[in-house]
């Protein structure tokens, strides 16, 4: 790696870390339902694979509405998002992972992350992200080319979703 490439990667890692910190400061998306019946119906309506595909579809819908290119799934970001959402579900925690890990795992030049938890549909999740300035910036980033999404139902019956956006 040349000195210029090393500097660029360091600069982008720093930007990703600042972006992740901004997202935490902006507030994480959490939505809850007041009834167990609503919780059960949302949690059982989709498989994780279907939920993730619908989240990506709604992300791409929003990107298209703003003149942005669509994102395709990429295995490395899907693996990091899936592992992270599983960790958060298992530990009942909710915070962003180190974007340096995503950059390294994908050999990427840009990484951003959005998180969501709640008894909500994929459409509602993306709508909530779009209403949050920090999350909206990641969804509509001109640097993002690919996305990986990990979604699962946690012990409270809520969808927990991590979406990792990368530029390879």
Automatic annotation (TrEMBL):
UniProt signal peptide: 1-38
Q: Which Gene3D superfamilies match?
A: CAP (3.40.33.10)
Q: Which CDD domains match?
A: CAP_bacterial (cd05379)
Q: Which domain of life is it from?
A: Bacteria
Q: Which residues form the SCP domain?
A: 59-158
Keywords from UniProt, A to Z, are: Signal
User: Which PANTHER family has this protein been placed in?
Assistant: SCP DOMAIN-CONTAINING PROTEIN
Q: What is this protein called?
A: CAP domain-containing protein
